[in-house]
Amino acid sequence: MDNRSRRPLPPWLRAPLPSGEGVARIRRTCAARGLHTVCASARCPNLGECWGAGTATFMVLGPCCTRSCRFCSVPSRPLPARAALAAEEPELLAETVAELGLRYAVLTTVCRDDLPDQGAAHVAACIRAVKRRLPGIRVEMLLPDFRGDEKPLRTVLAAGPDVAGHNLETVARLTPFVRDPRCGYRLSLGTLAAMRRLAPGTPLKSSLMLGLGETAAEIASALRDLRDSGVELIALGQYLRPTGTSRHLPVARFVPPKEFARWAGQARSMGFRHVSSGPFVRSSYKAAEAFAQY
């Protein structure tokens, strides 16, 4: 994998720039309360569409991750041991979700390897605060691997997320090149299997990025591994290089929409209950629709 400059995007990957009152409103509201959205931090290509429709995926535990995956643009830096969490974040998050009138909230996190519980109690508090403020809301929670420790998983799942997820991200062969060394293909599958065992009635979700150099056989194998781990909702999307710096991997291939459609059909034939597959798909893309069709 070389460090070629970013390749020009094909026509099917041209997204409109985020604009409009819906986008401005979410930006203002989050900035006023010191909240972070993965939409902006991860430079999601769907930001304009989702924010324009009044939806957002909130990132809790702070703006910086203790890991440094080579596909992600969330800032990564070593944190002081037990760096303080914003104690007011759960209630501010709940206020924001209520003010924006959301009926389906997606929460994700940075990794906090510096904390004794890796941030699990704080994440659980965020889920509970949102549900307490809006009793009818659905909350989807995208979790880290917690280094394979089931205790933090139990803490978060006990808060009652309506959908639980953890992203496999890529195929087994590419995992050491794409993800932080503290991550792992088998570690992620084990995390998903533990989530299925600990919360058997909760829909389980994961995602894969395509275009990193994986083969068709490797994609099929990863999908089978995800099904064997209990995953029911799957998202397949195109990897897009966040920056042209050496930290971020170049795109090996732009996968055409017809190929994403074929993978959607294959995933359904494997037994996934809902499949989102397309160039712009991310794990939280149209999450409310996926839940409604579950």
Report on the structure:
- Helices cover 36% and strands 13% of the residues.
- The model has no long low-confidence stretch (mean pLDDT 87).
- The protein is of the alpha/beta class and 294 residues long.
- Helix 5 runs parallel beside helix 6 and helix 6 packs across helix 8.
- The relative contact order is 0.14.
Care to give the gist of this entry?
The chain has 294 residues and is an alpha/beta fold.
Through-space gap between termini: 38 Å
CATH topology: TIM Barrel
Helix/strand-derived class? Answer: alpha/beta
- The level-1 CATH class: Alpha Beta
Low-pLDDT sequence parts = none
What is the topology, as strand order, of the major beta sheet? 1-2-3-4-5-6-7-8
Number of separate domains: 1
Helix count, DSSP H or I runs of 4 or more residues:
11
**CATH homologous superfamily descriptor:** Aldolase class I
Provide the gyration radius in Å: 18 Å
Q: What percent strand?
A: 5-15%
Q: Helical residue percent?
A: 25-40%
CATH architecture: Alpha-Beta Barrel
Largest sheet: 8 strands, mixed
Tally of strands: 8
The chain-level mean pLDDT equals: 87
- Name the helix and strand elements from N-terminus to C-terminus, one letter apiece: HEHHEHEHEHEHHEHEHEH
Shape, principal axes of CA atoms: globular
Keywords:
294 residues, alpha/beta, TIM Barrel, eight-stranded mixed sheet, 11 helices, 8 strands, globular
